[in-house]
Amino acid sequence: MTDAHGGEGMEPAGMPSSPVAVVTGASRGIGRAVAVRLAAAGFRVALVARSVGALEELAGEIGGWALPCDVTRPEDMEALARAVDDRAGHAPDLVVAAAGVFTVAPVAELEPADLDLNLDVNLRAGILTVRSFLPGMLARRSGTIVQVGSVSGRRAFVGNAAYSASKFGIRGFHSVLLEELRGTGVRATLLEPAATDTSIWDPMDPDGNPDLPDRAAMLRPEEVADVVHFVATRPEGVWIPFLPVEPS
Length: 248
Ligand SMILES: NC(=O)c1ccc[n+]([C@@H]2O[C@H](COP(=O)([O-])OP(=O)(O)OC[C@H]3O[C@@H](n4cnc5c(N)ncnc54)[C@H](OP(=O)(O)O)[C@@H]3O)[C@@H](O)[C@H]2O)c1
What we know:
By secondary structure, the chain is of the alpha/beta class. It has helices spanning 29-40, 52-62, 74-88, 112-140, 161-181, 221-232; strands at 20-24, 44-48, 65-66, 94-97, 144-148, 187-193, 242-245. The longest helix has 29 residues, at 112-140. The structure holds NADP nicotinamide-adenine-dinucleotide phosphate. NADP nicotinamide-adenine-dinucleotide phosphate (NAP) binds next to α1 and α4.
């Protein structure tokens, strides 16, 4: 993991007591909207993705720390947890795992590389993200984890086999995590949004494909971000283990 700001002079934009959030997938889409929403609410946000330029630009807009890294690399994620701890002085108050990929193909035409990509980023890296930050959060006996799953983690859509396997997988992981977190002071939520208008759809041209939802009918990333903010700001002792988010 590299530090886009060179590691020095990294004073946060917020007050010293501002809560600290880590957001993966912050370079665009839902993760970016979450970072913007949380910064507006006074969080100091660690911005995580691979696109250094996009993270630096966002940090210039909303403050926080641009911490580029590949979420599929365990050593990157461990270094990320140490970097956040160094800057914040403690484990994060909130971790939002929003990095993800989405490919579509019928099972008979599924490319092994696409299967690996979906499982690696959506499932394995979601687990690695929790694994990296959880020890510090447990030691502090506080904090909230928001894992961004998908409606495809509980419903079947034709062509979504690899994606759905990853999202059903993260649901299984999350269910075990919930059991392990009881009584620890750490909370976790699996957010399961329906289709949301982000760049994840760009290769599929949804408006030109009658089998896919039109962009206008999708959730806006800002709406999903608002729900993440809602989850993160519930009073201590309130648990939201699962939260589907649908357009009305
Ligand atoms: N959009 C939807 O319809 C929808 C619906 C339900 C759930 N979701 C879920 O929401 C999450 C975000 O999706 P989105 O729509 O916002 O997608 P997006 O616009 O394509 O953004 C994906 C984000 O993930 C990051 N990312 C991907 N691979 C990464 C890696 N190896 N290391 C670090 N960062 C990585 C990307 O950053 P870099 O490329 O810069 O690394 C980018 O910031 C995903 O988990 C997705 O499954 C999306």
